[in-house]
Amino acid sequence: MAGKILVSTAYLPPIEYFSLISGADEVIIEREENYVKQSYRNRCYLLSAHGRQLLSVPVYLGSQHKTPVKDITIDYSKRWQQVHLRAMVASYSSSPYFEFYFESLEKILSRKNDFLLDLNMELTETILEILKMKTKISFSTSFEPPGETGNDFRYKITPKEESQFSVKEYFQVFNNGKGFIQGLSIIDLIFNMGPEAVNYL
User: Fold this and answer.
1) Low-confidence residues in the chain, pLDDT < 50
2) Backbone dihedral region of 42: left (phi > 0), alpha (psi from -120 to 50 degrees) or beta?
3) How far apart are CA 187 and CA 66, in angstroms?
4) What is the pLDDT of residue 63?
5) What pLDDT does residue 2 have?
């Protein structure tokens, strides 16, 4: 996937998101689109002892039905940060590389970014550092309707549909003999595979 790609912002993005980034020369993250509910823009999936676990960042949508994603603010009236961090500890504290990477994610999640876009970008940049990926990342400056831009993946990675992108199987702490679980956040791969994670993208 050499060249430039266009993707949505995403919270602790799924593995296939970083697979796309790994093959690109440049990545543009969409900031001008209207916010899409029930998408990876504010949610991710971990693998717990009880199966896939959804984590969602609560956001304010305001009185407008259509709010630009760059203007979406985070709702801190709910204790979502503690919930997410506890879920990570419960799911991955026994994984081989948890102690190496959790602290850097915890620092970001313990702060209070006003905007979802800023939180997502901080997490994405940290994960790129962990993966030792130096892909150029920038934000869009105008909205291009779907289908008008080549290599447009903004609406192709979604929790509502089975992914079109396959992920190479790797060791997962909690697959409990049920076979490999797809559709998980990149942190599942990082905590389980550490420095080898980039080889699975």
Assistant:
1) none
2) alpha
3) 30
4) 62
5) 66
Contact between 42 and 116 under an 8 Å Cβ cutoff? The reply is yes
pLDDT value of residue 153: 94
Cα separation, 53 vs 149, whole angstroms:
34
Helices (H) and strands (E) in the chain — how many of each?
A: 5, 7
Residue 201 to residue 138: CA distance in whole angstroms: 21
Q: Which 3-state string (H, E, C) describes 107-155? A: HHHHCCCCEHHHHHHHHHHHHHHHCCCCCEEEECCCCCCCCCCCCECCC
For residue 149, what pLDDT is reported? 78
Token output for 185: 């956040």
Task: Name, in order, each residue with C-beta under 8 angstroms of 30's C-beta and a sequence gap of 6 or more.
Answer: 6, 7, 8, 9, 69, 139, 140, 143, 154
Distance CA 127, CA 115 (A): 19
Question: The tokens of 34 are what?
Answer: 């209207």
Contact 153, 29 (CB under 8 A): no
What's the pTM value of the predicted model, to 2 decimals? 0.94
Cβ contact 84:109 at 8 Å: yes
Residue 84 burial by Cβ neighbours in a 10 Å radius (0-12, 13-18, 19+): buried
Q: Give the pLDDT confidence of 17-62 residue by residue, as tens digits.
A: 999 999 999 999 999 999 999 999 999 999 999 899 999 999 998 6
